[in-house]
Amino acid sequence: MNLPLVMIAMGCYLAQGNIRSALKSKALYQAIGARLIIAPLIVLVILQFVPNHFMMVKNVILLGQATPVAALMAIFSHTFHRNALFSTTVVGLTTLCSLVTIPLFMGLAQWLWHL
Question: Is the pLDDT of residue 59 over 90?
């Protein structure tokens, strides 16, 4: 019941706000870029120096950095009376964008680490 309840809560937060204005926010795209591009790139560079016999560990760490923002962010922002619509939009868009960025970073890592 954990996942369906989170999705219901996020749907309620989205229904209460104006999604069009949230999509126009520059901070939204900065958060997405930082979470899905900058953080995995930094980890990818750092893990370049870890020996390849720890390949499984390297893959798990990189995958953890390339994943979208947790839905708990939206729930916490609503609980503490912050901008729940912005948080929910970040969660939704990072989830959609991660469909491209996760395979991209994992493929890039396999290519770099096997040179």
Answer: yes
